[in-house]
Amino acid sequence: MVGENAVPHHLDDGNTPVSVLLVDDNEQWARFVASDLEAEYPSITVHLALSPNEAMLQLGEFDIDCVVADYQMPEVDGLELLERLRRERPELPYILATSEGSEDIASAAIDAGVSDYVVKDPRVDQLSVFASKIHRAVEAARLRQAMAESERRYRSLTEQSSDAILIIQDDELVFYNQRLIDLTGRPRSWFESVEDLIATVHPDDRDEVRATLRRWQDMSAGGQLDELRLQTVDGAVQHCEYTGRQISHDGETAIMLSIRDVTDRKQRQRELRWERDLNRAVQNVLVAARIRDDIEQGVTGLLVDHGYELAWIGVPEHGTLTPRAQHGATAYLTAIDLSMETGTADSEPSLWAARADESRFVDDFEELFPTDWLEQAVASGCRSGAALPLSYNEISYGVLAVYHAEPGRFDETERRLLGELADSIAFAIHTVDTEQALASDHTVELTLRVVDDAYYLLDVVRQQRLTDGESITVHGTLRHTDGQFLQYLSVDESMVGTLRTALDSHPDVSEVTTIVEGTVSRLQVVVEAATPESILINQGAVVRSTTVETSGAELVVELPARSSVRETVDNVAMVFDGTAVLSVGDTTRSVADSASVSIVDMSGLTAKQTAALEAAFHHGYFEQPRRSSATEIAEALGVAHSTFLQHLRAGQQKLFADLYR
């Protein structure tokens, strides 16, 4: 233990410099003490002042750690100097030295707040006494300053914390940060006791919170996360997590409580749950559906069941957007004009989506200028709405429209979900329509004539100036990758050389491969531009054959009986000018034909399985001997050998299962 007159070792280790102001009107004594202190203790630097005024000047000029002042000085004594310094620098250590060991002076010094007190004794070497008291005073001051700075930083951190932090002692709130005010919406004057805090908790959670706080007060246990709900002044509910532990505050046991707002996280969890449940329910409907009406009625009903005020699907018919399925506040649909002529920028979202073929989201109907449809929407209980086109492979299947009873509901997550839902609905409708068409005995056979050079094969044959009787036949068109298509062509051997050269150099062609050489050669062509065949297969049509001559290209196409011939032709004519219909006829398959349909029903195949099967056929993979190996076909398709075989075998399995089931 360090005694009163002992000098702590770190005052003399040169690592803790101390600047001392020695104030004494006895110059001889002062200079002697200053000199000996600096000589004996190198870490101490002494500045000398022979009067209180000089001391004030020195304090303004130097960074002083401690003042040692004589009590008895002319005009102003040491206690009066202390009183002045305390007004300007209350934290500065101050040691009073006096030649008079009076109890009155000592008492007055203590009352005035001196750091320490020394009685001068010229008969004794007091250097160690002064050094020890200076050290103790400086160390105590530095410790107080460090603690004050630590507390300041702690308070700063707690005020900046995103959590509400409280200290509870004897059922009183002795500290809390601004975050608690923000969370509860109460003024600072509200919080004094634990019950004031409990009053901000949701009534259903109050007993549990009281019990938890009591448990933490009675034992040192704590640290686990619990949940509570806070209620703001306006009744809004904040979902929170809270935890607490025992601490020592001002020497007494207290509870430090931390409350974190997790409302956004809870909301996100609810949204994810809602999204997952809706997705699962919709997928079940889509998988079970056998006709289009099952899909449309099932999905719109589910959307209303999952919180939408109104959900409907409409299709353009005769200039009007006609509802095919509707659930919820359906009175709104009968009260508004759904004429496609009104599909302008400020029209009903569904009309805009149908005309512009793009999604439309309106977050708050009441923020828009009044229109007839807006007034009807609000009157029907709808405050926000969205409409999304239903399309697959550039074929439109109508519009999906949904409405909320509250504004501002269409956040990024819901917009993404609705976009994915619209894609799924369109694909499902396409699938059931295709399956129905394949199962139907009635089809429409359509013969088209294309004369536009925008079709790359017409451009090529005209450049080559084919003579009468010379032609190119297209046997198949498949989707490839990145918007490309594969086409299989047959040409006479007399023209294959020049024709292949022309194809190789055409800007719409990226690759040409000869797969059969002979009297009639077969070519595989990778096309990067639209062709009449690619447009037709995207609409669910089957292109039976294409014959390309200098005068034009003739396509024989089979359409499902319910398909719109006009719409099909218009879609081709939009890309290839001058497209004309040569003939249209209804056909009915015979019993034998109908039986054969089940054999070659490829609706259950994936696009990759279909491509693998057709490529294998055109490349002669099934012939004996094989004209092309699996490796060669895989390279032509741009896939791995194993991938090609996997899709080929899976496709064969599905077709044979239908045949022999």
Automatic annotation (TrEMBL):
Domain PAS: 150-215
Ribonucleoprotein found in the keyword field: no
Residue ranges constituting the Response regulatory domain according to the UniProt record: 19-135
SMART domains (alphabetical): GAF, PAS, REC
Keyword DNA-binding: no
Highest taxon above the source species: Archaea
GO MF assignments: kinase activity
Entry keywords, A to Z: Kinase, Phosphoprotein, Transcription, Transcription regulation, Transferase
4-aspartylphosphate: residues bearing it: D70
SUPFAM superfamilies, per the entry: CheY-like (SSF52172), GAF domain-like (SSF55781), PYP-like sensor domain (PAS domain) (SSF55785)
NCBIfam families: sensory_box
PANTHER family attached to this UniProt entry: DIMETHYL SULFOXIDE REDUCTASE TRANSCRIPTIONAL ACTIVATOR
Official protein name in the record: PAS domain S-box-containing protein
Organism annotation: Halohasta litchfieldiae
